[in-house]
Amino acid sequence: MKDIEYGIFMPVSSGGWIPSSTVPELDGSYAYNLEVARLSERLGFDFTLSQAVWRGYGGPSRHFDDNLESLVTSGGLAQATTDIGVWSTVNTAMLHPAIAAKMVATGSQISNGRTGLNIVAGGNRTSETQMGIGLDLDNSTKYRRAAEWVEVVKALWTESTVDYDGEYFQLKDCQSDPKPVGGVPQMICAATSDTGLAFVAKNLDGVLFEGTSRDSVVAIGQRARRISQENGDNLKTYCVFMIVPGDTDADAQRRIDLYNEGRDLVALERMAREWGAVSHDSSAHNPDNEGWKDSTAISTGTVAGSPDSIAEQLADMVEHADIDGAVFIMPDFIDDLTVLGEEIVPKLVANGFGRVGA
Predict the structure, then answer these.
(1) Which of 212-216, 291-295, 329-333 shows the lowest mean pLDDT across its residues?
(2) Is residue 355 part of a domain?
(3) Tens of pLDDT along 223-240?
(4) Half-sphere CA count of 289, side-chain side, radius 13 A
(5) Radius of gyration over alpha carbons of the chain, in Å?
(6) Comparing C-alpha atoms, which of 146, 138, 118, 104 is closest to residue 207?
(7) Looking at the structure, do residues 248 and 332 belong to the same domain, yes or no?
(8) Residue 357 lies in a domain
(9) Do 62 and 138 sit in the same domain of this protein?
(10) What span is annotated as the signal peptide, if there is one (predicted)?
(11) CA distance 223 to 217
């Protein structure tokens, strides 16, 4: 039996993860997320994770335009649940580590130690620049700043007073009490580059990644494991999977075709610019500015099909990528989540891939 954690990436932003006008309506409201969290707990999932979004992508679908703040959301969900983990996301450029340390420790009291933290080291350019805090830093510099941020929060969670004189953060006799329940919460960070994976392996507990295909999931998972072994072999790997279930494989494919038919080209272009897939040269003749037009609304790493087919595909990737956790997103976080929890994950567990709620 390989011990696998199963989590739900919460729909705290409107539209979920599919920029399309033909997807099931996800309003990003707290009421909807509360329903999803309680359902996830009843189904035996190990944790929920909420992302940090500060600006949407617009377009006809208003993709991500309505978004809940992650730490506050998790505090509410913690009060409304009893067993499931409630993990949050913090952008290290936007929230001072001393403030984050206090907020996470408070959430730890609310949840009785069920908190976890996903940090964003690189940041979202448009989210930061709209607030006047955008920093034009390369990846290595962003990770250096994030490493200081992590050092500070860990110190505040474990020491009575903290003096820190870093490149980005300076603290003098800084105190933060009470401490989190049960000690330092688990901390993860999304990364796929060697630089990012090495940062996570040296400073955090786990890495979050998403592949674009079966082979890319396996390649990233194996590379993360190698880098983990080079840095003490303490790194957990969590892969994000978009799940689209259907009664049959053909039924699931019809759902994907429908969502792609309604793809939001405005939102897709803005997403491509945000993540550097489109050149900042806006020339109409620049081929770099045209690639996004081939993007589909649904992730290329989507796992679709009947429950049996999805379970088989997931088992293959979990085994060969040697991952420690699967974090799920889906078009409908009620009906699809129910299929995932009642039909798909039990098949994985029966075949030796973890024990939900362990």
Answers:
(1) 291-295
(2) no
(3) 999 999 998 888 999 999
(4) 8
(5) 20
(6) 118
(7) yes
(8) no
(9) yes
(10) none
(11) 10
Q: Which two tokens stand for residue 54?
A: 């500060």
Amino acid residing at 32: Y
Q: What average pLDDT does range 277-281 have in this prediction?
A: 48
- Is residue 97 within 8 A of residue 169, CB to CB? The reply is yes
Q: Tens digit of pLDDT for each residue in 124-137?
A: 777 878 888 766 77
- The owner of tokens 């703040």 is 69
Q: Which amino acid is at 336?
A: D
Alpha carbon 38 to its chain's center:
19
| C-alpha to C-alpha distance for 11 and 27, rounded to whole angstroms | 8
Domain coverage including residue 291 = 267-296
Counted domains in the chain: 2
**CB of 80 within 8 A of CB of 31?**
no
Q: End-to-end alpha-carbon separation of the chain, Å?
A: 12
Q: Where are the beta strands (DSSP E) in the chain?
A: 5-9, 47-49, 85-91, 115-120, 162-165, 170-174, 186-190, 206-209, 236-245, 303-305, 325-329
DSSP codes of every residue in 302-349: -EEESHHHHHHHHHHHHHHHT-SEEEEE-S-TTHHHHHIIIIIHHHHH
What distance in Å separates the CA atoms of residue 4 and residue 164, rounded to the nearest whole number?
A: 37
Q: What is the pLDDT of residue 122?
A: 73
DSSP 118: E
Entry pTM: 0.92
User: Within this chain, do residues 271 and 162 fall inside the same structural domain, yes or no?
Assistant: no
Quick check: 222 and 341 in contact, CB under 8 A? no
Which residue, 252, 278, 296, sits at the end of a domain?
296
Same domain, 282 and 237: no
Assess if residue 358 is contained within a domain: no
For residue 280, pLDDT beyond 80: no
- Any idea what the Cα angle at residue 273 is, between residues 59 and 258, rounded to 5°? 45
128 in the same domain as 141: yes
Helix axes 70-80, 30-42, angle to 10 degrees: 50
Same domain membership, residue 141 and residue 63:
yes
Q: Report the alpha-carbon distance of residue 300 to residue 296 in Å, rounded.
A: 8
* CATH number, domain containing residue 154: 3.20.20.30
244 and 286 co-located in one domain: no
